[in-house]
Amino acid sequence: EVQLVESGGGLVQPGGSLRLSCAASGFTFSYYAIHWVRQAPGKGLEYVSVISSNGGSTYYANSVKGRFTISRDNSKNTVYLQMGSLGAEDMAVYYCARQRGIYPAITFDIWGQGTTVTVSS
Amino acid sequence: AIQLTQSPSSLSASVGDRVTITCRASQGISSALAWYQQKPGKAPKLLIYDASSLESGVPSRFSGSGSGTDFTLTISSLQPEDFATYYCQQFNGYPITFGQGTRLEVK
After folding, report:
1. What is the DSSP letter of A9?
2. How far is A25 from chain B (nearest CA, A)?
3. For residues A19 and B39, what is the distance between their CA atoms, to the nearest angstrom?
């Protein structure tokens, strides 16, 4: 079965750090770029970051630039999102998603179930 | 950043109704637009890509149209499982952006 499974979410204090993981199975992971999208409680979807298939290119939304780092280990079929200087505005469900196609004809065809990040003292 | 504005923000409809949701981009994006369905507590599900291509496995009552700045998602005959929130998403440039969502509720 083609799937993405996020993990690593939890409760963190303001200013703290957390690392999320997105583990893939059922497809050739090294062929695909992977994106992160988040959703604050009761809110819409917000784009966070992307890493290319070989890890050579990354992009970050302005809201997380300088605080978050995306990386991948193709030998482990896993993408990571290292998050730092966390604040209330980062509290959300974080989804990873597989990119299908080549820019600009891309889409997110497979999504994980999400992992919840709570920022509170 | 390219802004996407969906209308309406919420919509009440009945089973069997024909429903149309609109997504307007702040600048032209060709056909680089997708539509997703999200149910409470679940991840978004891809419905339409490239503005009008139906994703495999998605019922044919869903259709998309448009190019440039104006796009529509149409559900030809609402089914009980279609009550959810719908988002458009553009890929024409980074940052990738989403519309604010349209909540489709039972009348």
Report:
1. -
2. 17
3. 26
- Kindly tell me if the per-residue pLDDT of A106 is higher than 90: no
Q: A90 by DSSP, 3-state: which?
A: helix
Q: What is the pLDDT of residues A2-15, one digit of tens each?
A: 999 999 999 999 99
Who among A46, A104, A108 is closest to B32 (CB)? A104
Across the interface, whether the CB atoms of A61 and B95 are under 8 A apart is answered yes
Interface list for B 67-106 with A (CB within 8 A): 87, 89, 91-101
**R_g of chain B computed on alpha carbons:** 13
In this structure, the strands spanning A10-12 and A115-119 are parallel
d(CA A24, CA A6): 9
Q: What is the pLDDT of residue A102?
A: 82
SS3 at position A67: coil
Nearest-Cα residue of chain A relative to residue B57: A109
What is the tens place of the pLDDT at every residue in B64-89?
Answer: 999 999 999 999 999 999 999 999 99
How many CB atoms neighbour CB A32 within 10 A?
20
pLDDT in tens, A49-66: 999 999 999 999 999 999
A-contacting residues of B 25-54, CB under 8 Å? Answer: 30, 32, 34, 36, 38, 42-46, 49-50
In Å, how far is B107's CA from the nearest CA of chain A?
A: 21
- Rounded Cα–Cα distance for residues A34 and A8 (Å): 17
